Amino acid sequence: MYLLRDDGSEMSGSVVPRVGKESTAWGVGRRLGVALLMLALAAEGCGNNPQDSSSVIPQPVRGSSGLLRLTTEELSRTPIEVVAVGRGQIRVSRDFPATIRANENELAEVTTLISGRVVKVQVDVGADVKKGDLLALLHSTDLGLAEGAYLKATARLYEADLAYRRAKDLYEAKAVSLAELQRREAEMKTVRAESRESQNRLELLGVTRQELERLDREHTIKADVPIRAPFDGRVIMRNITRGEVVDTHQTLFTVADLSDVWVVASVPEKDVEYIQKDRTVDVIVAAYPHALLSGNITYIGDVLDPATRTLRVRVTAQNPDKRLKPEMFALVRISSDVDPKMLTVPLEAVQSGPMGTIVFVQRQANEFEVRPVKLGQEQGDVVTVLDGLNAGDQVITKGSYVLKSELERHKIEPTP
């Protein structure tokens, strides 16, 4: 054992050092320092020991910037569906305000051809009628006078025809002259012309062939003016009351066939290029927002409205259930042709991430790339992609929300 002197030289042997207050404090200090040094070395040795794995907690790698990796266990808990980015699956559409109107080709404003007093009103607004059904009945003195003139002309024709036949027989028997025969013939032709004139007048007043036959058979004046439906349809307007006197310029009923209607739209000047005659379009009615009806463009205006700078476009739509009513508001949706270069993805694949709209693209079975995208117009369950994807990319639809949760939990930045 070696000890050091106060001057730094060694001293061997079992020499007992001096015992005093100063030497005792110095020895205690050295022993305390040695103990602290040994504890520090022991702690450092435990931290650098590779065989002591009980104090290390393994952390799984979640991927670099833009990539998300899931373990096999996490994949088994997350149902995932993959869809390839496609092309040409959506049409660009434009909506134009419109108003539903009755088909004017199947619309009639019923009037009377002769003035008279209303004695009966057979139908009311909303009634469905067939062609020839009685709408109302008038009593007209003018018609009575016309029927009386017809009966008189018919009687004179009968008398003139008999006189001509007698004169003809007498002429053959040399009992009358040729001049007398010719005079009787001229009278007969004159009266026949008057009879035809009176008959034509009755026909112009709306008297039917059956009524004329009744007059010839019964020789009785009725003076009744029936107002009848011109075709199958529905009464959409009534302007007549029993007891009032109506004239020829007055509209009594409006009958419309609403089995198909017109949808009249106003198309701005900048969108005229999308309008093509006979093209099939969609009609959306404000009263039935979830019903999508179809129609055909049957008329395109030739002149723009100078005030609104819009073009009048008429769409004919079928209305078998009579749900479409004139003056309803609607939208005419005209879709463009399919663009084969336009990329589309299901809306289910799109999520809102920390840097905006994103989708997840599968790179490997457990590796997914976070891709920011720029979207265009939606249609149904798909949306157009303007930037960020390529055709054929495998995007996640079902399970994309779970991947978004993992993305936010591990703070992964999308691939720029």
Write a structural description.
The chain is of the alpha+beta class. Helices cover 27% and strands 34% of the residues. The strands form seven sheets. The protein has a six-stranded antiparallel β-barrel with strand order 6-15-18-17-16-19. Helix 3 packs antiparallel against helix 4. It is rod-shaped, with a radius of gyration of 52 Å. The two termini are 73 Å apart.
Features:
416 residues; 6 helices; disordered N terminus; six-stranded antiparallel beta barrel; alpha+beta; rod-shaped
* Beta fraction: 25-35%
Total beta strand runs = 26
Strand order of the largest sheet: 6-15-18-17-16-19
Output mean pLDDT.
82
Return the structural class: alpha+beta
The helix fraction, in percent, is 25-40%
Q: What kind of sheet is the major sheet?
A: 6 strands, antiparallel, barrel
Q: So how many helices? A: 6
> How far from one another are the termini?
73 Å
Unreliable parts: 1-26, 40-64
Shape: rod-shaped
Radius of gyration: 52 Å
Task: Describe, in short, the structure shown.
This protein has 416 residues and is α+β, with helices and mostly antiparallel strands. 27% of the residues lie in helices and 34% in strands.
Give the topology, please:
Blueprint: E1 2-4, E2 10-12, H1 21-47, E3 67-69, H2 72-77, E4 82-84, E5 86-87, E6 93-102, E7 107-110, E8 116-121, E9 128-129, E10 134-139, H3 141-172, H4 178-204, H5 209-218, E11 224-228, E12 233-238, E13 245-246, E14 253-256, E15 260-268, E16 280-285, E17 288-300, E18 310-318, E19 329-335, E20 343-346, E21 351-353, E22 356-364, E23 367-372, E24 374-379, E25 382-387, E26 394-396, H6 400-410
Antiparallel strand pairs: 1-2, 3-23, 4-26, 5-20, 6-15, 6-19, 7-14, 8-10, 8-13, 9-12, 10-11, 12-14, 15-18, 16-17, 16-19, 17-18, 20-25, 21-22, 22-23, 24-25
Helix pairs in contact: 3-4
